[in-house]
Structures are given as structure tokens and as C-alpha cells.
Amino acid sequence: MIDADSHRIANVRHRGDPIADDSRFLLATNSFRLAACGLFAPLVARGRIALRDERPTRAVLRRYLRQRRIVDLPICRPWQFRNLGATAMFETHPDARDHMTRLGHEERARMDYAGISDEGFARFRLAL
After folding, report:
1. pTM above 0.85, yes or no
2. Helix, strand, coil proportions of the chain in percent (round to 5)?
3. Residues 90-128: pLDDT tens digits?
4. For a 10 Å CB count at each end of the chain, is N or C smaller?
5. How far apart are alpha carbons 25 and 19 in whole angstroms?
């Protein structure tokens, strides 16, 4: 969360550790957010632009993928929700239940199968 008055970032962590006031990061973003829109305005206002490239993000990604052909990214969990003590219900394809074994132990522990909806969709409850 960004505190617009003090331009401080609250409740944000990097690799599990709180971010200190003097921490430095390189923020990679698109031109919309760089234009000081919305919640990014305090971050953009204080920083300098390390690389300004007028090409659309899609074009940059497309070129990168064409050059690499195979992109082998490590599997990691870059962020997660803090336990809020609440749940959210969502509906998805009925076969989704068959794929729950692909989830890690922690993810499976946070999600319960809640049956089939009247419309034929699988219902899941996710602990937030």
C-alpha cells in the first residue's frame, strides 16, 4: 500500500522481509504507469527513469521471445496474500478438481472443493 501523503510504501515485503525506508529497487513498468497514473504516482514522482523506450511492451516481449525461442523460468512464488481470515468462492471448469494435485501442498491446503453449481461449474472456496 502506498501512503500518498508521505510517499511511503507500507506493508510491502521483498523475499519475506519488510522494505526499509532507504531500500532501493528498479521498478519495471509500462508507459501508462510511468505517466504517474493512480497509485504509482508517488513512486514515479520521486524516481528517475533508468531506461526510456517508446516501443510498446508487447513489441519488446514479442522480440525477446522470438530471439530466445525457449524461455525457461524458475518456478517461484513472487507474492502472496496475507492470511485475512476470510474466504472467497469462485466457479471454474468442472474438470479443475482433477488438476488440484498439480498445486503445491500450501495451495491445496488453502482451497476446498465446494461442489458443482446449478450451472454445472465446479465451485471452490479459497482461504484469503
Report:
1. no
2. 30, 20, 50
3. 999 999 999 888 887 778 888 899 999 999 999 999 988
4. N
5. 10
